[in-house]
Design goal:
There is one protein chain. The chain has about 120 residues and is mainly α. Helix 1 packs antiparallel against helix 2 and helix 1 runs parallel beside helix 3. The longest helix is centred in the first third of the chain and has 32 residues. The chain is elongated, with a radius of gyration of 28 Å.
């Protein structure tokens, strides 16, 4: 811990500067309040992450844990997720307008396995 002595009446600077001017009992209370605020923020982030992930058709349970562990960062990540409902809807719109994807779903490996099955069946 870094200490810098300043004449009486002024703040004593430590590594936790905002707690430095408090007495020992007050420091414990302030640290407890800070801990409670952090826990509340993480729990709130967990529930918001779960709700947002569910609305975007993602795993609510996994995003709840991400929000609980990472707090507001988990919530920001959940907000940044792509919406599966929107992806399906946009694909449907494109296909009704005549869009044909270059590759079938599953890529080249699936096409090769289908052609091998067809060759065996002939």
């Amino acid at each position: 811990m870094i200490k810098l002595s300043i004449p009486p009446g002024l703040l004593t600077l430590t590594s936790a500067g905002w707690l430095a001017s408090c007495r020992d009992g007050d420091k414990r209370v302030m640290e407890a309040k800070l801990l409670v605020m952090v826990v509340v923020a993480h729990v709130a982030s967990a529930f918001f992450s779960k709700t947002i992930a569910g609305q975007k058709a993602r795993s609510s349970k996994n995003w709840f844990w991400a929000g609980l562990i990472f707090g507001p960062l988990g919530l920001i990540a959940a907000v940044g997720l792509a919406d599966r409902h929107q992806i399906v809807y946009l694909r449907h719109l494109a296909e009704t307008q005549g869009y044909q994807p270059r590759h079938k779903c599953g890529g080249k490996a699936k096409q090769e396995s289908e052609s091998a099955i067809n060759a065996l069946g002939r």
